[in-house]
Amino acid sequence: MERRAFRLNGFLVLLVLLVLGGAVAAIWLEVLGIAWGVLVALVASGFTVVNPNEAKVVQFLGRYVGSISDAGFQWVLPFTTKRKVTLRVRNFETTKLKVNDADGSPVEIAAVVVYKVTDTAKAAFAVDDYEQYIAIQSEAAVRHLATTHPYDSHDSERTSLRDGAEVATELTTELRDRTELAGIEVIEARITHLAYAPEIAQAMLVRQQAGQIVAARTRIVEGAVGMVQLALDRLAAEGVVELDEERKAQMVSNLLVVLCGDRATQPVVNTGSLYA
Prior knowledge:
Structural class: alpha+beta
Order of helices and strands: EHHEEEEEEEEHHHEHH
Strand content: 15-25%
Number of strands: 10
Number of helices: 7
Distance between the termini: 97 Å
Radius of gyration: 38 Å
Helix content: 40-55%
Shape: rod-shaped
């Protein structure tokens, strides 16, 4: 939709005006003086200054005639309106939104979005205000993301909101689809704030701690069983002692107590017989 507007170097047009002004002053005719004044007023309305990383959307009597992105002093068609659109990379952070995740738990979430305008015509005419448009669409995308993923997932095949890289890629892709019609390119979008809502934060903390304890105990038991198996195999292989099933059971019980206990164990010397 964007196209290049007709333009001339502003300094060149200004130089031509000065030369014509000098000629009119030399002739000094009243009729030429009036024509000169009208010409200056007509031409002067076409001058504009374009800053670096900025564009001007040019309209003539309501009709879009093109855009100028070349920085400097420029001249376009007279009696045109020139709307400034920045091409700089910009970013903003959404407000903290309170939504329910995929498991129905209320969470607080916010994201930062980095974007820039790539089509000035779409940014100027496709939407009323492209800055407000991307802000609203960003909040909608963040809400949709939060409702389709759980805060924390114990299933390795299920993406959670805490999986930063995957969630950021998904959010960026969705925002690009939403903002393309406004001539905006979303460079990056990432979650900046993620927490359970205050009313369930304490309960979820206890749940997370319990989950960590269970996971730690599971690892301890797995390691202890392996160590007990290794000890029995080494004793049998090197012929240190022959153990019947009852003695093996007693040894396994003692080793598991030592290895799995969360406190230091006190050694007890057995001077008697197991069968006494």
